[in-house]
Design brief:
With 388 residues, the chain is an alpha/beta fold. It is built from 13 helices and eleven strands. The strands form two sheets. A six-stranded mixed sheet has the order 7-8-9-4-10-11, with helices on both faces. Strands 3-2-5-1-6 form a five-stranded mixed sheet. The C terminus is likely disordered.
Length: 388
């Protein structure tokens, strides 16, 4: 037909293109059969997992007659004035209070801590000690809101003036916000505990996908867009959808974002200045959990802490991979920054940097007596690493 002049050559190209398009559409299932099967298997597993979670939660809620209450209280509204109109000093300095806390494991309901009551004020640096399995890390999980099996009340005292991200609700008292499951639906937005002047530092820090700069800014400024360099594209593989909503969407303002000089200085403060020459710049991208040792990752986590400047930090063996000299140096850094800290650890060297100790012993299931004891630590230095 083409040589006889009945059709033009362009019609032939259009016919070929249309045929290939139709062939590809009809062959989609054949070509993608393996991927579709794998996708279907993943959906089935996730569906089963979701069903198990729903049944577990419903069973858990039906079995529990009481649970641990975790709340955030604006200490300015909770102050009780003296008869002369002055503000009590102790109330002004309160950061955390635990009242009659009995902590149990979520599955076996074994009691770990029985009837714990304590108050943490500013500069009350508490060291939590005890044998392995006694419930030290579990206590931090309860403080973080991850465990609520048991009874008692945990209250964090925050300042609205320093915490514009504090969620509010018309149905909640102005001075208290409760995060138990009954109240969770009333909050207007996600709960960001770091924005409340709190910071949690685990033994193995989380290393985000991205640049060294993003490592340092996480998690306080994780939702900010950080340019790699002039004209550079975003980092491949950076999971921006995991960073949460921007702060403008949440309706609050955060502390001023650190400058490049601030980031370089904080690396020097935690004795990590040498990694800039090793990796080139703050905008270098690596698999940080692989290229940094655990000790370097822990020092990097302390750099995040110093940049965020919270009022209270909970440390779960956060210096276990460090030598005593670096450990002492980091504790001096956060103490000089005015940060109050609660540490979980086993080393005797930690006593030098704390003024109170909470000793937890293994709970006896046949005894209803408390299994903890709080003591004051002597201010006399036990170790001296200043010369190291």
């Amino acid at each position: 037909m083409y040589f006889s002049g009945k059709i033009e050559f362009g019609v032939i190209n259009q016919s070929v293109s249309a045929f290939n398009h139709i062939l590809g559409d009809f062959s989609l299932i054949v070509y993608q059969f393996q991927s579709i099967s794998a996708f279907s298997a993943i959906i089935d597993r996730l569906g089963e997992f979701d069903d198990v979670l729903d049944s577990s939660i419903s069973k858990h809620l039906s079995e529990l007659s009481e649970e641990i209450s975790l709340s955030y209280c604006n200490f300015r509204n909770s102050l009780v004035l003296e008869s002369n109109g002055s503000v009590p000093v102790d109330n002004c300095q309160k950061l955390l209070s635990i009242e009659n806390l009995t902590l149990q494991t979520p599955t076996s309901k074994a009691t770990l801590i029985r009837d714990l009551s304590l108050v943490i004020n500013e500069k009350d640096h508490l060291l939590v000690t005890g044998p392995s399995g006694s419930g030290k890390t579990s206590l931090l999980r309860a403080l973080a809101g991850l465990w609520n099996v048991g009874r008692g009340k945990i209250t964090f005292y925050v300042d609205d003036a320093d915490d514009p991200q504090l969620p509010t609700s018309s149905e909640l008292p102005a001075n208290e916000i409760n995060t138990s499951h009954e109240k969770a639906g009333e909050l207007e937005g996600p709960i960001n505990r770091n924005s409340r002047g709190l910071f949690f530092l685990p033994q193995r820090p989380y290393m985000v996908l991205g640049t060294l700069r993003q490592q340092l800014l996480y998690p306080t400024w994780a939702d900010d867009t950080t340019p790699m360099s002039d004209g550079a594209k975003p980092v491949a593989g950076s999971l921006s959808f995991l960073m949460g909503k921007s702060n403008s969407e949440n309706g609050g303002a955060k502390p001023n974002k650190p400058t490049t000089d601030d980031l370089i200085q904080v690396l020097e403060n935690v004795r990590l200045g040498y990694i800039l020459s090793r990796f080139g710049s703050l905008d270098s991208t690596y698999e940080w959990s692989s290229v940094l040792s655990l000790g370097e990752q822990q020092r990097l986590a302390f750099a995040r802490l110093l940049l965020s400047k919270p009022k209270l930090v909970l440390l779960d063996e956060s210096t276990s991979a460090l030598d005593e000299a670096n450990e002492a140096h980091l504790y001096r850094q956060i103490e000089a920054a005015g940060i109050t800290y609660v540490s979980v650890g086993h080393r005797r060297t930690l006593y030098e940097h704390h003024n109170m100790t909470l000793r937890i012993s293994t709970a006896d299931p046949n005894c209803n007596k408390r299994n903890w004891d709080i003591e004051s630590i002597s201010s006399k230095p036990m170790y001296d690493f200043s010369s190291q």
